[in-house]
Amino acid sequence: MRNDQRTITEDQWRQAEQIWDYHQMHHELRPANVAIGLGSHDLGVAAHSAELYRSGLFPTLVFTGGNSPTTAKVFPRGEAVHFREHAIDLGVPAEAILLEPDATNTGQNITLSREVLAAAGIHPTTLLLVSKPYMERRSFATARRLWPDVEILCASEPLEFDDYLKSIGDEKLVLDMLVGDLQRVIEYPKLGFAIEQEVPEDVHTAYESLIRDGFTSRLIAS
């Protein structure tokens, strides 16, 4: 049994790992026209975007994101601005980075980044989305809905579940976020925000169990 702000049982841990694995698309990466680093509380997105740029996977990188209640204190000048600065510190040339500083949700991340690229004369046919590990599937579904004529690949820091928990430092919060993102994967297609994706029965069972156990702080109102 593991302890943090709240005791997480072995069953809850196993259920969370199932959802964690489902959220990741496990795409085999290959060169893309551009990459979009999705803003969030996780600076690892910027670091991994920089690593992928240095490996030669894409020539142009967009960082997108304004602020949210969870990032305003950490990134007071906006997620995209801080991500850009971090990537430059890690060796990405400033001229390779485009900035989209206004988006406040994933749909806007995609739509506004597309506008920034178009304004720069870039019209990609292949797009690499870099996100938090548990946000790959939702970002994929959103991009497929809003930008259907572009091939979408997804990437995130290659962290094991344990290592990601240690990097965040709050087990309860991470489980809440896993559950919240899965709810969005399930519900957003009904609202026209994303394409529909199959949720395996065991993943859905794990999701419902964690909701019953109170991992609900990131759920949207039904």
UniProtKB/TrEMBL annotation:
InterPro entries xref list: Cell_Envelope_Assoc, DUF218, Rossmann-like_a/b/a_fold
Residue intervals of the DUF218 domain: 45-146
Alphabetized Pfam families for the sequence: DUF218
Highest taxon listed in the record's lineage: Bacteria
Name of the protein this chain belongs to: YdcF family protein
Organism: Streptomyces celluloflavus
